[in-house]
Amino acid sequence: MCCVKYQAMMVLALLFHMLTAKADLLGIAPYPNAKIEEKQQRDVTNHQVVLSAVRKVNGLLRAEKELWLDGTLHRVLYQIPTGHSNKEAFDYFVEQVSKSGSTVLFRCEERRCGSSNLWANQVFEVAKLYGPDREQYYQVAKYFDQQQLYYIALYTIRRGNRRVYAMVEIFKPKQKAAKPLLINADALLAQLNEQGFADVFGIPDDAKQIATNDSYQVLRQLVKEHSLRLVIVGQGTWQVNSKASLASSLEMGKAYAQKIQQQLVLDGVAAEDALVMTSGPALSIKHQTLPAIRIIKQQ
Fold it and tell me: Which residue stretches of 105-160 are H helix?
């Protein structure tokens, strides 16, 4: 009987540890003193990664940009301590994701995210995440670790009963995305305000293809809608083999940035608002495999 009681106590202790222990997902620590309401890791098929606001069309969930992938999902649902806001919780997790070197693909706030009911009951399938549309924040980012791609989704909400919840999802897909993933203008602006710079991937090196490229159109929207003055830093190492000289790498980066600048000028942006620099191999954009520029706010 004594052994049975001891074993039962050990099981209860283990369960308590699982519910209260710190979860370190890709270096993302839990919110201080938060309660873990749910924690799971499982293989999933046809998992939805949402890259835009959501809406309901004919009774079905719709997102302008989304991915459906098979892989492994690791998620933690936190109840944030009383006295802490959903924005504080969101900023806490966003800061950690940013420090990891992740690239933000989409970010929204409040009503711009769409219906909280859809996020709670159809995207995450967690009823506790349902609250007023004006009390929600969402971000999804991509992260590479030893060539493995991960998607990190953050969602916080303050419910009508004033309780605050945060969902942290890390999804490891089995297959690669079909095309380079985009960030939107709001996400780029947030990165510029927080870091002073942002990286833009996937604008083609062929000048004839730039104007119709999705990544370029996001950059153009950012510059024109927010009247920004930027420095465009071209990185040429994605197409430079190990025997290429430093001079050729620098020239490639400069030529690439100039092509983007020229297209911005054609689209009505003043040349002095899109200055050009080159970094060659000096600019280290983590896990870079696509053409890339780094945009920096002019001082």
Answer: 116-118
CB 240 within 8 A of CB 249: yes
Residue spans of beta strands (DSSP E) within the chain: 35-50, 54-57, 60-63, 66-80, 103-109, 136-145, 148-158, 164-173, 197-201, 230-235, 274-278, 292-297
Q: Contact, 153 vs 169, CB < 8 A?
A: yes
Amino acid at 66: E
Identify the DSSP state of 245. -
* Region of poorest pLDDT, from 119-128, 149-158, 249-258: 249-258
Alpha helix (H) residue ranges in the chain: 2-20, 86-99, 116-118, 185-195, 207-210, 214-225, 246-266
Give the total residue count for the chain: 299
* Cβ count within 10 A of residue 87: 15
Q: Which of 24-28, 105-109, 262-266 has the lowest mean pLDDT?
A: 24-28
pTM: 0.61
d(CA 107, CA 153): 10
Give the separation between CA 168 and CA 156, rounded to whole angstroms.
9
Nearest to 190 by CA among 255, 278, 98: 98
Residues paired with residue 155 on neighbouring β-strands, in sequence order? 138, 167
Which residues, 6 or more positions from 245, have their beta carbon under 8 angstroms from its beta carbon? none
CA 94, chain centre distance (Å): 9
- Asked whether the beta carbons of 155 and 119 are under 8 A apart, the reply is yes
Q: How large is the angle between the packed helices 246-266 and 214-225, nearest 10 degrees?
A: 60
Contact between residue 25 and residue 75 where contact means Cβ atoms under 8 Å apart: no
Cβ count within 10 A of residue 88: 14
- End-to-end Cα distance, the chain: 74
Task: Say what angle helices 214-225 and 185-195 make with each other, to 10 degrees.
Answer: 60
